[in-house]
Design brief:
Lipocalin; Alpha-Beta Plaits; alpha+beta; 4 domains
Length: 553
């Protein structure tokens, strides 16, 4: 009985263990199946979710594209020899491009490439779209150049076609089938060395920052841009004239602001002016310091100058400033079908007033000539003018001799000290005012370029000398005579060959022209009447009057 019970219990234990092991196996198998199945379902759900709702990636930052006129700006050099470079700094104002260019060499002290010959370049696109294109790497222009060194800030030639192409390391200058490669080079001398990005003084309320347009000279306004760090640009451009572009910095004082600046194309010459400001909403009032003389005519006044807000906030480009295109240049009177060797617009501004360093005045022209010669022997540039021909000189006709002519009073004052040291103790500086009569001399060597019509006589390519223009007095000009051209009352007509009493200038000239063609002996009775040096007064290309006829030495 006891043995049976033990056997029974043992069997129960074995059975229980068997069931236990068997159940464990089933559970393990079931669990593995469920895990695998759940994993597959989960992956399928994940894949389905990806298909329906793809994962979004953060959007890329939009690229800011600058127009061509900004991207092409910078300093460039082209190595010509071991120690000489062509140098170029391109700048922009609005959508127009300008450059300070020159021939230079590396200066040992600073390591900069400094110019020993320099000039300004203006780039005129064929359309505004070209220079504002944010995608193009090249743009076609016509260029004009001027310099104070060779031609006193007058354009030295006809427009030249050029393509500027931005490259990885600089710039290609393409002209006439030739490619000159410039590399980016920070050693190049700066066009505006006074401009200072580290300057941090605050000259006025920050509301003054931005671009301002002069409103009391609507036909030919200046633009002033006040930038952060007290930097400033001053700009004026007319299609008929060379650009005025100056850059510098502002320094506040107790009562006024002093602007130190440099003008594009003037090399190392620096200048300054002083002013105070008042702001009234969108109007800015500048009051120049009357004791401060500078090269900017706008500031040589004791009157207030009014500006209107053209663009607030000095960050970005001045797209509102009028873009001067090549079409504007052509419309201003330049020949679109130019010949590269042809020089135009070389005529000086003969009507403009100037500051003179006056050393003598006489009613005797011979005495004036002697005074001019002595002044030249002392090493000064000298010229003589007739006072009655100028608005702020003596209305009585005196022959006045000056040691040069100067656009700015401070330039004349500097020369005045040297003139006094040379013995001219009574010399003084005075402004001439505007010219009233444009009296010049023309020289004619042959009649080959003369055309005689029924009502007009055309004199082509005459050599003109202006006694009041000094070293810039010789230029070439076409002139014409018509029925309104007269002999001046003081003119000695006996010096005009084959003159007959009552002749008009047209009658006298036409008769001699016909003699020269058909009766040479008659023409030469008093010498070649139409050949020689003639003193005349002109308005533009019209000969108003004849004052004298002379032979050259």
């Amino acid at each position: 009985m006891k043995t049976g019970r033990i056997r029974f219990i043992t069997l129960l234990i074995i059975a229980a263990l068997a069931v236990s092991f068997t159940g464990c196996d089933k559970k393990e198998n079931k669990g593995d199946g469920e895990v695998t199945e759940q994993k597959e379902v989960k992956e399928k759900k994940t894949e389905t979710k990806k298909e329906v709702q793809p994962v979004e990636t953060p959007p890329e930052r939009a690229e800011i594209l600058e127009p061509f006129c900004e991207r092409v700006c910078g300093k460039y050099s082209h190595k010509c020899s071991d120690d000489e470079y062509d140098m170029l700094e391109i700048v922009h104002f609005g959508n127009n491009l300008y450059a300070y260019a020159g021939d230079g060499a590396v200066y040992d002290v600073t390591g900069e490439i400094e110019a020993y010959s320099f000039w300004a370049v203006e780039f005129f696109p064929y359309s505004e779209d070209d220079v504002t294109d944010p995608y193009t790497e090249e743009c076609e222009f016509n260029t004009l150049c001027f310099s104070i060194m060779s031609n006193l800030s007058k354009y030295w030639g006809a427009p030249q076609k050029v393509t500027l192409k931005i490259t990885d390391d600089g710039l290609d200058w393409i002209s006439g089938g030739e490619v000159i490669h410039y590399v980016s080079d920070e050693r190049v001398e700066s066009a505006f060395p006074m401009y200072d990005t580290s300057h941090s003084e605050i000259f006025n309320d920050r509301d003054v920052l931005g671009l301002w347009k002069q409103i009391d000279n609507a036909g030919d306004p200046y633009y002033i841009e006040f930038l952060p760090n007290d930097n400033v640009f001053i700009y004026k451009k007319d299609p008929k004239e060379e650009v005025f572009l100056a850059g510098g910095k502002l320094t506040p004082t107790d009562r006024k602001v002093v602007c130190e600046y440099k003008v594009l194309g003037l090399g190392g010459m620096e200048d300054s002016f002083a002013f105070t400001t008042k702001q009234r909403g969108y109007l800015l009032i500048l009051e120049p310091d009357p004791d401060n003389v500078c090269s900017i005519d706008m500031f040589n006044t004791d009157k207030t100058i009014m500006f209107e807000m053209y663009r607030s906030n000095a960050v970005g480009s001045m797209y509102n400033v009028p873009t001067i295109t090549y079409e504007d240049i052509v419309a201003a009177g330049y020949d679109e079908n130019y010949v590269p060797e042809f020089s135009y617009n070389m005529e000086p501004d003969t009507w403009a007033g100037f500051y003179g360093v006056w050393v003598s005045a006489s009613t005797d022209p011979d005495a004036a000539a002697e005074s001019q010669e002595k002044l030249e022997e002392s090493g000064f540039e000298a010229l003589t003018l007739l006072s009655s021909e100028w608005s702020e000189m003596n209305s009585k006709p005196y022959y006045c001799v000056t040691a040069g002519r100067y656009d700015a009073e401070y330039e004349a004052q500097e020369v005045l000290e040297r003139v006094k040291e040379a013995g001219y103790k009574d010399a003084y500086v005075k402004y001439t005012g505007d010219r009233l009569i444009n009296r010049v001399y023309y020289t004619i060597y042959s009649l080959d370029d003369v055309r005689v019509d029924d009502d007009m006589i055309i004199l082509n390519a005459l050599s003109i000398t202006d006694p009041a223009m000094g070293s810039d007095s010789e230029y070439t000009k076409d002139l014409f005579i018509d029925k309104d051209t007269v002999f001046d009352k003081k003119c000695d007509t006996s010096m005009f060959g084959n003159y007959e009493k009552g002749d008009t200038v047209y009658d006298w000239f036409k008769r001699n022209y016909e003699y020269a063609s058909n009766d040479p002996d008659k023409y030469m009775e008093s010498g070649p009447a139409l050949i020689g040096v003639f003193e005349i007064s002109i308005t533009d290309s019209h000969i108003d009057s004849y004052l004298g006829s002379y032979w050259w030495d």
